[in-house]
Protein 1
Amino acid sequence: MRFVDEFRDGALGRKVAAQILGVVEPGRHYKVMEVCGGHTHSIYRYGVDDLLPENVELVHGPGCPVCVIPMGRVDDGIAIAREPGVIFTCFGDMLRVPGSAGTLLDAKAQGADVRMVYSPLDALRIARAEPDREVVFFAIGFETTAPSTALTLMRARAEGLRNFSCMCNHVTIVPPLRALLDSPDLRLDGFIGPGHVSTVVGARPFEFIPADYGRPVVIAGFEPLDILQAIHMILAQLAADRCEVENQYTRVVPYDGNPAALRAMAEVFELRPHFEWRGLGFISQSALRLADAYADLDAERRFAVPGVRVADPKACQCGEVLKGVIKPWECKVFGTACTPEHAIGTCMVSPEGACAAYYNYGRFVTSSGGPSL
Amino acid sequence: MSACDPHGHCITCGDVGVEMRVVRLDDDLAVCEAADGDVRTVEVALVDGVCEGDRLLVHADVALVRL
C-alpha cells in the first residue's frame, strides 16, 4: 500500500540505523521521549529500538489519553452510567479502565446500559434512534479527537437534540510536556513529536521546547521508518548544536495544522483551570470542558457526579511509567498482578499504553539484560 | 486487547488515523472506504473542497487532512 510499504522496508530501516550510528557521540547517553502512545505501540510492534545504538534510549511519554485518566473521572462516568434511563457511550478502550470500585464494563454487567462506539457521531445516531433515553458520550483524547467531539456537539445543537450530552475529558498536549520539562526527575535530550495531534494543532505549539528549554522536537509519522528518521533528525540536530522544531511527517502534517478544526474546538470548548493527570498530578489549563454556550449539552451539569479525587492503587506505578522515570517492566506488578487481561494500571489497559505495548510484543528485559517472562 | 479497531490499535489515542478514499459525497458527510474494505460515513466539514476519489486521513469518523 502506498505510504505504508515504503515506510516498513527493513533494508531502508537498517540504512537509517547506520546513519543514526554516524551522528551519535560515543560515550554520550541520549534520552529521546516519544510523546505519543501511538509511537510507543509502533516502536515495540516493529522492534525499532532493536536498531538503535545502546546509548540511545527511548523514553515513553504521557501521550496515551486513556493512560492519564484519573480514577475519579472513571467513577464520575460510572455514576452517570448508573442513572436511570441513561445510555452511556464511550470508546472501547475506556471500558476496562479501573475506577475505585470497578470499570464501566463491571457497571454494564451490573445492569447499566454502557455501549462501545467508534466515534461520537455513533453516539449521536443512538440519541436520534432513542429519543426517550438520555445518551451520554464520554469524550476522551487529545486534540486529534477533540474536533470530532466538537463537530458532534455542533450537530446536536443544530438538530435540537435534547437527549444528548457529553462528559468531556479531552486533554491538551502542550501542558504535560512543559510539566515534564520542568520535572527534576527526568533529563531528556529531545522529543519525537505527536504526528496526528499535529495535523490539528500544527507544529507551532511545540516551538517553546527549543526556545525555552533548548531541546529539539521532530514531529513524526507512525511507521517504523518515520520513527527511525525522526530519531536521526533529532540526533543530527544535537550533533550540529542545532535546536528547532522539524517536521518529518510532511506528507500529513501542515506546519499550521487544521484551522477549521481549531475554530470548531474554540467554539465548543474552553480550558479548565486545572485537570488531574494520572502520574503527573494537577496541571493548569491542560484539559477542555464545554464552553458556556454549550452548557446544556454538558453531562457534568445535567447529572450529579461525585467529583471525588481517588488515589491510585499503591502497587501501581503508572505515574512513574508515564513520566518515563521507570520502564514498564520495573513496576512491581508488571506481568504478574497487572496484565492486559487483568489490568491494575491504565498503562496496561490501552494497547497504546507503554506497559501493554511491552507486554504484548514481549520486548522487555530485566535489569540483568535477559527476558523477564 | 481492548482496542476498538481490528488492528489492535486504541481508537482513543488520536494517533490512529486511517487513510480512506472518498466514494460518495453528501454535504458535510462522505462515504469513505479504507484499504481493508471498511466503509464508514465520515464528516468532512474540516477539510476544504473534498471530492470523490480524494484520500483523507480520518480519525473517529472525522476527516482531518487530505493526503
Protein 2
Amino acid sequence: MITTFPIPNIAPLGPEIFLAVIGCVVIIADLIWKEQRYVVPAVVITGAAATILMVTQVHGQAFNGMYSADLFGAFFKILCLLGLIMGVLISIKNLAITGLTREGEYYSLMTFSCVGMMIMASATDLIVLYLGLELMALSVYCLVGLLKTDPRSSEAAIKYFLLGAFASCLLLFGLSYVYGTTGTTDMRAIAKAAAEGGLATNSAFLMGMGLIVIAFGFKVAAAPFHMWTPDAYEGAATPVTAFMSVGPKAAGFAALGRVLIEAFPAAHANWAAALTIMAFLTMGIGNITALCQTSIKRMLAYSSIAHAGYALLGLLPGTSEGMAATMNYLFIYLFMNMGAFAIIILLQHKNAIGEALEDYKGLAKKHPVAAGLMLVFMFSLTGIPPTAGFMGKFSLFMSALHAGYTGIVICAVIFSAISAYFYLRVIMLMYMYEPEKEIALATSGGLAAVLAIALAGVIWLGCYPSQLVDITTKALMLGP
Amino acid sequence: MDLGFPILSTLIFLPILGAAALLLIPRSKEGDVPRLALLITVVEFLFSLPLWFQFDKTTHLMQFVERKSWIPAWNVYYYLGIDGISILFVLLSTLITVLCVLVSWTAIKEKVKEFYAALLFLEGAMIGVFCSLDFFLFYIFWEAMLIPMYLIIGVWGGPGRLYAAVKFFLYTLIGSVLMLVGIITLYFYGGHTFDILELSSQTYPLKLQMILFWAFFAAFAVKVPMWPVHTWLPDAHTEAPAAGSVILAGILIKMGAYGFLRFSMPMLPQATQAMMVPMLVLSVIAIIYGAVICLGQDDLKRLIAYSSVSHMGFVTLGMFALNYQGVEGAILQMLNHGIVTGALFLSIGIIYEQTHTREIADYGGLATVTPIFAAFFLVFTMAAVGLPGLNGFIGEFLIILGGFSAKTWAGFLAATGIIIGAGYMLWLYQRVFFMEVNPKVSSVRDLNYREVITLAPMLLLIFWIGIYPNIFLSYMHTSVNHLLQQVNASTSSAQINPGMVLETALRFIGG
C-alpha cells in the first residue's frame, strides 16, 4: 500500500530558503572568484535585497502553524536584512585592513546568521524558535572568533560561546518545564492551556517561563546577563560588532516579544515584574559603566546594553502599543548604531589604532564631514530631537507610561540624561580639542553608502516618523 | 490674521535652511560666510516685521495659525501660532540674532562656517519654541536648541568652556526629560492630545496638577534659572563667546519664564495658585542672592551673569504674583532684560575682543580712552539699574507693584534687590570706566561703525520702551487678561482695567 506523503506548504519559508541558498552560493563563489574581492559581497547584497522583496510578498502559515509569515515577522526580517546589507557594506574594506582573509566564510556566516534571525522572527513554536536561535548564535560565535591572529578575538569568542551555550541550555530547560506543564510547544496553545489550567500560579510553569526570559536576557544583553557583551563586542572585528549589535539583538527582541505576548499573557504580572528589574539594571549598568570607558568600541558596547534596557520598556506593558514602540526603537537603532560604527571603521587601522577615544581628538579639524556625521549619530543615540533617537525613545516612554509604569520611565529618562555625558564626550573630543596625531580615513564606497543610508534614516525618521509608526502599529494589529 | 503664506514656518525654516547652505560653502570661500549669515538674519528680521504690523491686538486668540497633521498615530500636529505673549519674543529673537552675527564678525576666527550655521540653526529652533502650539512640537524645538548652544559654548568659548558646556547641557537635559514625562502624562489625561490650547481648556485633578507642576518646574526653573538650580548659568554665560552669551541672556533663559506662562499657569491653574508662595520665596531669594553675589565678582561677564539671576528673579516674582501688573511687568521685564543684558554682553564682547581679559581689575579709566563706548555702556548700566525714563524701570516698577498687591513682603524684599542692583552696577561702571587709566587698556581703540551699528538698536529700544512702553504693553493686554482669567477661574475673576495700571506707572515717571 502506498501512503501519500503530504507535501507541506513551504511558500511562507521562501525568503529563508532563498537566503540560505545565497549563503551556499557565497561559499562556492568564493572558491571560483578568489581574487575578485567584490564578487562575494555583491552576491550577498543582491541576495539580501531580493530577500527583502520576497519577504514583502509572502504571507501565511506553514507546518501546522509552527511558522507564521506575518507582518510582525516581516518587519523584523526586513530589519535584520537591512542590518545584513549594511554589515556587508562596512566589511568590504575593513577585512583587508584588519587582515581577515577568509571572506567566503565571513560572508556566508553572516548570511546564515541572518537566516537564523528570520526564522526566530517568524517562529510560533518554541522548537522552531530554538532552531532559529541556534543557527543565528552559532554563526555569530564563529564570526566573533574569525580574527584568529588577535588574542582578544579568540577570548571574546570563547566567552561568548560559553555563555551563549549556557543560555541555550537554560532556554531548553525552561522549554521542558513549559512543555511539561502545558503539553505543547505551540505558543498559542500554551497560552490557551495556561489560561484553562490556571497555570499562572503554577510554580513549574513560572519557573519555565522565568528560565526562558533569562535565556533571552542573555541574547539581548540585558543586565544582569550582559557580562559577555563588552568583551565580545571589543574583541570581534568592528564590522562584526556592528552587525551583532543590531540584527541578533532585534531578533532576540522579536522572539522574546512574541513568546511573552502570545504564550504567556496569563502570567503578565510575573514577567513584567522581572523585566522591570532587568530594564532598570540594564539601563543603569549600561549607561553608568559607559561613562568611564577609554575605548570607543567598549563604550558603544555598554551603550548598546543601555539601549537594550530602553527597548525592554516597550515589552513591559505586554500590549501591542508597547511592542510597536520597541519595534520603532529597534528600527531606528539600526540606523544610528550602524552609522556610529561606520565612523569607527572609517578611522580604524591595524593594531587597534583608531579604537581609543583619544584618537578622536580634533577630528572636526582634520575631517569635518566624518566628525559632523558622528555628531549626528551621537546626538541621536542620546535621544535629542530632531534626530530619530528621540522619536524612538519617545514612543517607548509613551507606551510604558500609558500602561502605568511611571517609576521605571522616570528612571529611564534620568539614565538617558546621564548617557548624554559619554556621547557628548565623543563630540567634545572631536570638536573641542586640537588634533594630536594624524589619522587617515579608510574611505570606501561601501562605507559611504552606509553612512548615507544611516544619516538619511536618522534625519528622516527624526523629522517624519509617522510612516514607521503606522507600519509597526499595523504589523501588530494582525498579530503576533 | 493671515498673510496668505506660512509666515511662521518661513521664520523657522529660513535660518535652518540657511545654516545648511552655509555648511556647503567650501573652506576656501569661508571669508564670505559672515556676510551671507548677516544677509540671512537681516532677511529673517525683515520677514518678522509683518507680524508686528499685522498683529490683531484685540483678541487673545492665536494668530498666523498653521496646522497640519504630522504624526497621526500619536495625534501630533505641526501647529504654529502666536499671541500677545509670544510675538514680542519672536521679534526679539530675530533682532538679537542679527546683532549676534555683527558682534561675531571678527571675533570668530576658527570653524567660521560651523559657527554661523550653529547660530542660524539656533535661531530657527528658538522661534519654533515661541510659535509652537503643539506640546510635542514645542519639546522638539526646546531640546533641539541644546545642540547648537552646546557647540557654541564648547567650541568657541573661553578657557573653561568644556566644563561650562557639559554643565549647561546636562542641567537643561535633566530638567527637560522630567518635563517630557509630565507632557506624556498630560497627554493621556487630556484625551490623547498635545494641542496646547485644548490641554489648557481642561481641568485636571489637583494632585495631578501638583505633580505636573513640579515636572514642568524641573525644565522651566532650570532654564530661567531660578535659585537654587541657577549654577549652570554663571559658567555658561561667562565661558560662551559674546554671541552665545547674548543669545543665552537675551532669549534662551526667557524660554523658562515663557514656559511658565504658556504651560504651567494656564494648564495647571490650581497648582499654580497653591505654589504661589513657594515660588515667590524662590524668586525673592534669587533677587537678593544674585545681587549680593554680584558685589563680590571680579569677572565682568560673571557679574552680568549673576545679575541675570537677580533680574530673572524679578520676572518670576512678577509672574507668580498672579495679578495683572505682575504678569505684564514680568513679560516686559523679560523683554527688557533681553535687551539690556544682551547689550551689556555685546559691549563686553566688543571690548574683550581687544583686551582678551574679563578681569575687572585689568580695566580702569576707559571713559577717557573710549568715550563713545563709555557713553553706550552708561546707558546700558542705567537701564539695568532701573533709572526712570529707561526701559528697566517700567518692568521693575510694574513687578514690584504686583508683588506688593500679592504679598507685601515680596514687594518689599524685591525692592531691596533694586537697591543692591544699583550698587553693583554703578560700582562696576566706576571700576571699569573711571579712575586712573589702566596701562593694560590704554591703547584700546573706540567703537568702529560696525560696533556702533551693533549697539545702536539696543540703545533705541531702551529709550523707546522707557519713554513709551504702551506700544509694547498694548500687544500683551488681551492675552495677559485671558491668561489671568484662566488662572483665576477657580477662585475669582476680577477684571482689571489695563489702562489704569499703565496710567499709574506713567504718572510715576512723569512726577
